[in-house]
Backbone:
């Protein structure tokens, strides 16, 4: 019987970009801050949190205005 799991593997685009930046930083090919080297890891999370915050504010305004 075949395995029916849909698990995906790999590191994804953000992980690949982070690894490229990390290697370039460790080889002294780029002189960036570590904040920018790790940016592919934390920027998607920050965008998600910003969008979630906007959605929560909008939901709160709709609830407040519907009273």
Residues:
């Amino acid at each position: 019987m075949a395995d029916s799991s849909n698990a995906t593997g790999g590191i994804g685009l953000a992980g690949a970009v982070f690894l490229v930046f990390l290697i370039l930083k460790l080889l002294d090919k780029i002189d960036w801050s570590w904040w920018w080297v790790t940016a592919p890891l934390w920027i998607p999370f920050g965008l998600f949190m910003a969008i979630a915050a906007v959605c929560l504010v909008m939901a709160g305004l709709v609830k407040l205005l519907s009273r």
Notes: Residues 48 and 54 are 10 Å apart (CA to CA). DSSP finds three helices and no strands in the chain.
